[in-house]
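Changelog note: in this version the structure field was regenerated for every chain. One regenerated record is shown below for reference.
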Amino acid sequence: MRLHRLDITAFGPFGGTQTVDFDALSAAGLFLLHGPTGAGKTSVLDAVCYTLYGTVPGARQSGQGTSLRSDHADPATRTEVRLELTVAGRRLEITRQPPWERPKKRGSGTTLDKAQTWLREYDATGGAWKDLSRSHQEIGEEISQLLGMSREQFCQVVLLPQGDFARFLRADSGARGQLLGRLFDTQRFADVEKRLAERRKATEARVREGDSALLADAHRMQQEAGDAMELPELAPGEPGLAEAVLTAAAVARSTARERLTLAHCRLTAAESAQFAADRALTGVRELARLQGRFTEARERAVRLEERAADRREAQARMERGRQAATVAPALELRESAEAGHRRAAAAETRARALLPETLAGAGAAGLATAARRAAEELGGLGSARRAERRLAEVVDERGRLERQERDDEDVLREAEGWLADWDTVRTGLQTRIDSAQEAATRAEQLAVQREPARRRLEAARLRDELGRDTDEAQRRALASARQAVDARAHWLDLKEQRLNGIAAELAADLTDGEPCAVCGSTEHPAPARKFAGHVDREAEERALAAYQRADEQRAQDERRLGTVREALAAATAETGDTPTSQLAAQSDELEQEYARARRDASALHAAHEELRLAEHERERRLAGRQQAEVRAAARLTRRDGLVAEQASLEEELAQARGSAVSVAARAAQLERQVALLTDAADTARAAADTARHLKDADARLADAAYRAGFDTPQDAAAARLDDTAHRVLQRGLDDLQSEEAAVRAALAEADTAAAAQQPPADLDAAERDAATAAQRLRDAASARDRAARCCAELDRLSARATEGVRRLAPLREEYERVARLAAITAGTSADNERRMRLESYVLAARLEQVAAAATVRLHRMSSGRYTLVHSDDRTGRGRSGLGLHVVDAWTGRERDTATLSGGETFFASLALALGLADVVTDEAGGVRLDTLFIDEGFGSLDDQTLDEVLDVLDSLRERDRSVGIVSHVADLRRRIHAQLEVVKGRRGSTLRQRGV
């Protein structure tokens, strides 16, 4: 990386624009950056860092970048830093503008403009700068990738802060580790330590989780086994927990099996005792049953003796019922005859009550004769009924003719009224058709005029727009012409200034002993020197390029002005001088008239349709009127015939209906009279017949009762039994007979008689003994079942615990392995004798490289006395790995770097900084660092040491490097000719280059 040019505007203490030409300063190899305290020496380095990374080093960065603005700057001047450099073979230009609170363009107060960044690359082929990006993120990633260093690394490698390295020499291992970790990016090794620690915690948690499940199973086994199992006093994750739990489970299973064997023996004994008790209970129950059977039989015999009289009475009643059964047919016949006679008499009474008084006392023959006469009269009313129906039809037809006549009169009246206005309607519709036709013709004519009017309006608008564009193009052409003139004058001024100072430019290439390109002399006693503000070839070429760009812009603006003027002339030729507003008004008026014509013309089709419908309606009404007249003539003839027929039918019906309202009413009277007379005659004959049948039934009943042995028919009826009563008496007698036989059989049984001779059975005592034996059996079975369940549950839990231990074994091995690695990388393991963390181990290797690189320069600075070595010894009880010692060749002893004097500490830290820069550069991919800055510390050196240090720094030129020294030491201004001076003033600081 080589810096070429730095432009600073309104940054830090610099109120205006300051430029640093690093190419000129780097030509001498060493250059001095000096100035009073607070003038802004460090701000120059801050500007370089800010341009590359967007931030400044250390604590000077605050806020969002607004603190970088100079307090001396004009309010209208924006803070800007531009750096031109070459990195990785590419020449780049980076411009950054931090956030800026500028005055508002309108009103009072300020507004905040966002930060902006530009990245450009010089194209050597085209000889111009090419824009690459304006994105903060893209530019930051591009620069970091090209440099291969972070901002912290850059500040330690390129901007060498001597104070930091002096503290680094005296720091402990922790402080050195923080600095080296930032520079060499060993975070990945710290991440490895963190990852191993996290993995150890994760595996430990999983092991503890598995052990917790194992202990849970162990607690459940203890609940099942009771006092037969003792749990180990170990927590989850402790070694030996699995073996202890499995051993305790095995002991519990063995004890449970012994208890199961004992429970089986107790159950067998209880089953035998229960069988004997059940057998004894069965015998006692049988004896009690037989004794109860004998006692019950004796009691039943006593009850049978008490019911003997009821039995004899039932038998006598059954006998009388059998005798009365022979009289039952005569009784049933007499009851049936009596019921029929009562029904016939009641029907005769109801029928006679409906007859007229003249016929109420007539006999059956008289009633039948009257019915025949009424039926004959009813048969003669058939023709009268037909005449009555025809008369109703004639009346309905006359009513229909009258309604039709009224409808036809309405049709004729409406048709006459409508047809009277036909001529007026037809004339109005034809007028509407003619108006719509004229509007359609007018719309076609206006449509032809619309497009030319629209084109003239568009051309007028284009004419106005081109007029405004012409004014703008003319203004820009005048401005670009002035800029071109100014750029040409500036270029000619710079060219003249360069010609005036060309002698100093030629003198810069003079070499002692080499001939001058102008005069040929090999001696150069007084070569010209460049004065402040000297114009070189690059400045002249930039001015020339600016003039060429301005002239090209002028030509482009003049061409655009000519193009716009030609377009304006063409538009004006089409529209003339008519104002756009007038053309717009004419176009709007034409559009409105066209719209009205189209709207009027749209009624043409509707008017034609209305006329067609009106003519169709006229034809329909004419036809309706004609049909109504024809129907009226036909109705007149039909009405006369219906009147004559109605008079004839009414005369015939008056004779047939007599006093009745109608023939149908007369027929209904006769039909009812016939039905009543017929019914009365029938009921009279039926009553006479049932009376004769009742008398015959009484005679037959008296004879049957006498032959059956009854004094009267009433006695026979009282002794008669129905089927239900007979079944009840017979069932009672059968039950008594069966009971008597059962009692005799029970008393005759030998077992029952023998049981009756024995003492009474004690059933309660036998049941108590059997219940006690059964309870003992249930208790023994429950104990056996509990023991069996305990064994099964212990076997299940033991199998699950064994399976859990087997599954957990690989995880436990992984945990032990990860825990050992985590302890080793963290420096807490006994195997890590020096208690060195992994990150410290990597940094120790880097520190060895840095010490080796620093020793090369320290050996020269100290005249071969000191050598830096890395030490990994432990200090007290702390950790080791980042110790740094110095070997004194004069004493041959190794001692701590904190024992060095102030001057020795300076050149040792300088050597360390240069060595660190070499190692970091190699670590970053070998990016060349052609420009370095060293900040302060030279005031602590004597003259001889200062010469040796400068010789070392000067040797860096062998690698084509340039080193900038930031110092207040006045002697350095005499020793280093190329200088960049920072001049402090009340209006801000300025930069001044000397000796270049």
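Spot check on this record: The CA atoms of residues 311 and 732 lie 8 Å apart. The two ends are 21 Å apart (CA to CA).
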